[in-house]
């Protein structure tokens, strides 16, 4: 209730404040109408006098002259009557009742639009153009002066050979005419040179001229430009703030961040922001009456729209991506530069994330994603063969711990403390074997053929039990998963037994240690059981 009463009081105060102004405007309107009425009465009286004179005219010529004067007076009276009706009613009755459509002349409209800009450019280049005009004019006068000298010389030659007095008199008059023309040319050259010297004496350095142009611009149009730019950014950021408020304090905050309706609202709202900000700057220039900057701004906007027309298909594809209905969608997996990424956001600068990398968050221009295609994520799908801290073995024999892993390179710390860095493509080309989750170490041990009877069952089982006990005794029992052994092959000089040890997570740094331990245990087992370990034999056959 209090707000309503306050509003009524405010409206009443504004109304009372406006009454004196309205009264003053009314008095001025009445005075203007009375002045027009008096002028109309005077013209009517003049018409009556002229009509009387026409009736008393003695001849036709006089009547035609008076008729022309009468027509002018009647035209003047009609114009005054139209002004009276327009001011009294506030409408132009003739324009309101005129239904004739005028043809739109685009060339004339465009010329009228850019004429202030052309005048401004003409004013800026006025001085150099004036200097060039004066120099051209001096050259033209000098050329005419040479022609005058030749003409006078020609006349002198003809007069010297003439004997007729009448002809000589005519030639003297012609020579006098050319002499006067020559004197006029000399006078014009002197005046033009003086004007040129005056212009050249006003010449300033480039820096001074630029400073004067800059100062002149900011005294007149610079202020309007700053206000227009300020209006653009004020409206832009104010509507951006409003957009954030709408997201935080309306039911939209409960919508899914990547829902189609929310994205459609964002796109339309941002288009409205740009349109409103541009309109604000144009309104400022319009109200300030700065048609030069207004014309430039209008031409700039037309150029932007025209260039946007050429890339309409690309804009359409970008719009589909922003609305999350294109080939790439938020939350899905995409291959970018040979690496898998999860699409986190889709905006003008989209965000791709790979949790396996240090610094695994990159910004990509939306335009670069138009030709890409994403797919839904798989269950527990890996993002890279390794993570920082993992132990890996590469195809070239490199074995170490991943110390640093970024989208550009992978750095390994090898056994002994040295480092080795790979470009990401080279690293993947080495088909890294990750030993940090679980892995199997295999070794082959040969026994002599004299133990052939027990090589397929007893020896493999003995090796298995011995290796398992030896690994537990070495303090690796918590990381041991299983040990298996079996007859592998009958070699050239031995019966080969394969032993395989599978380790759990956390034993990646013991890969070679476990391999050596398995060889040692098998050797000790053969020694304890009296099983002979053969060596490679070479048989030499001597030719007969």
Automatic annotation (TrEMBL):
Keywords: Coiled coil, Membrane, Signal, Transmembrane, Transmembrane helix
Signal peptide extent: 1-23
Recorded coiled-coil stretches: 33-83
Membrane-spanning residues: 225-246, 267-285, 291-308
Protein name: MscS Mechanosensitive ion channel
